[in-house]
User: Which sequence fits this backbone?
């Protein structure tokens, strides 16, 4: 963990964001595996804005789900993201109490 004096690790708010990505990502991967969707790589890109005044909680978070693979069905990825939003990701359910969360996804060809 990092303080404002030394840049050696993530700040507490960055850790919360990392926890959000990890929680949602684990859900989506697990759901896709249960749907028998094969893919080569999966990651989530997170962008966040905080409120200007204290407490400087997250006001907006963008979650971009990125997946690489041949013939990844978009409808299954969308359903997996919906399930993590609506039901499974407890970190997301905490963060969305203060932040507007925007979701998008990118399906990319398999890495060679």
Assistant:
């Amino acid at each position: 963990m990092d303080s404002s004096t030394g840049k050696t690790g993530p700040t507490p708010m960055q850790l919360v964001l990392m926890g959000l990505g990890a929680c949602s990502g684990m859900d989506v991967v697990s759901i896709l595996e249960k749907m028998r969707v094969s893919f080569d790589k999966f990651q989530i890109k997170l962008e966040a804005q905080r409120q200007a005044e204290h407490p400087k909680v997250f006001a907006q978070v963008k979650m971009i789900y990125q997946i690489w693979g041949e013939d990844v069905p978009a409808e299954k990825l969308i359903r997996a993201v919906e399930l993590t939003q609506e039901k499974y990701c407890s970190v997301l359910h905490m963060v969305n109490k203060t932040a507007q969360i925007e979701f998008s996804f990118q399906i990319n060809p398999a890495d060679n």
About this structure: The chain has one domain: 13-108. Residues 13-108 form a domain with the GMP Synthetase; Chain A, domain 3 fold (CATH 3.30.300.20). The mean pLDDT is 94.
